[in-house]
Amino acid sequence: MLDYITAEWYDLAPELLGSLRPIVRDLPPGRTLPDFYPSPMGGPSVDTSPSASSRRSIPSPLFEVFAIRAVLREAWSVPGDCAESIFMAAQTVSGACENYRRNYGARREVRNAARLELLAAHATLQSHVMETEFLFMERQVIWDRIVYFLHGDSFFVEDFAFDEEMYIEPDQLWFGVLPAGITRVWPDF
Questions:
Q1: Which of 3-17, 24-38, 83-97 holds the top average pLDDT?
Q2: Which residue among 48, 85, 116, 134 sits deepest, i.e. has the most Cβ atoms within 10 Å of its Cβ?
Q3: Is the pTM of this model over 0.85?
Q4: Is 90 found in the same domain as 178?
Q5: Which of 72, 107, 128 is the last residue before a domain boundary?
């Protein structure tokens, strides 16, 4: 959207411009923000013509918006990369599960090796899921920075609570999956 902002946006969409509004108001007619203020981070809107040298320096917060935009462009492939990573890890879990089923009646050493392979595959899948959550959280923080620069306020609805599920009565999380024979041994559950 930044590539299309002209002085007309000052009156047409002031709520979208936020703190960029005074900068947009001062644009010459027919010039866009990145055309009049070339991004120091490069990109498709950078003009290298002789008239480019006569442009003013980039005012804040536009400079910060350009910097954040460059970071977002670098992270553009994150959703696809994460989906592929999780899919491949899930395929590994599926294969390890099938291997464990095939070897369940085998010698103890073979069965234990297949079980460890399955546990490792599950752990790897979980780490890929967690890494995806971190990457998406980082992207949300970057978008939040843009909102902050433009409007001076955050758009997060609530804070991230990584350990919320883990520390709400941790004993109860495992209690439901334990066999009845084990839970009878520990009456504290």
A1: 83-97
A2: 85
A3: no
A4: yes
A5: 72
